[in-house]
Amino acid sequence: MVVIVLTACPAGLRGHLTRWLLEIGPGVFVGVLTSRVRDLMWDRVVELAKDGRAIMVYATRGEQRLAFKVHRHEWEPVDVDGVYLMRRPADESARPADARPGWSRTSRYRRARR
């Protein structure tokens, strides 16, 4: 089983993928491919994606039974003790610029209880 998710990719790439996969939603393609065809298709996706982004998830042997390939995406696959996870980069806007230990109201309550 192969799942490919495209974001901001040319329509020609979407048309190319519909030859082998079913489009179940805008930019989401699903199907069953051999490993050779899957690798050739991923090369084609990288070649035609231009400024777009692509993620491919496919079945493989192992404990997790799946693997990831990413092209121009902010999330990246990371091996953590033999298990692949998708790491999202830290969002700098979520933490205030003047953040320091004890800046939140909760941390002040905890400090007061001590």
Structural description of this entry:
This protein is α+β, with helices and mostly antiparallel strands and 114 residues long. It has one domain: 2-Layer Sandwich (Alpha-Beta Plaits), CATH 3.30.70. The chain has helices at residues 11-17, 35-48, 105-113, and strands spanning 2-7, 22-25, 28-31, 53-59, 66-71, 76-80, 83-87. The chain has a 5-stranded antiparallel beta sheet, with helices on one face. Strands 6-7 form a two-stranded antiparallel sheet. Strand 4 (53-59) and strand 5 (66-71) form a beta hairpin. The radius of gyration is 20 Å and the shape is elongated. The model has no long low-confidence stretch (mean pLDDT 88).
How is this fold's topology laid out?
Elements: E1 2-7, H1 11-17, E2 22-25, E3 28-31, H2 35-48, E4 53-59, E5 66-71, E6 76-80, E7 83-87, H3 105-113
Antiparallel strand pairs: 1-3, 1-4, 2-3, 4-5, 6-7
The rounded distance between the terminal residues' Cα atoms is 54 Å
Total domain units: 1
Taking pLDDT < 50 over at least 5 consecutive residues as the criterion, the unreliable ranges are: none
Query: What is the CATH level 1 assignment?
Result: Alpha Beta
Write down the overall mean pLDDT: 88
Summarize the structure.
With 114 residues, the protein is of the alpha+beta class. It has helices at residues 11-17, 35-48, 105-113, and strands at 2-7, 22-25, 28-31, 53-59, 66-71, 76-80, 83-87. Strands 2-3-1-4-5 form a five-stranded antiparallel beta sheet, covered by helices on one side. The chain has a two-stranded antiparallel ribbon with strand order 6-7.
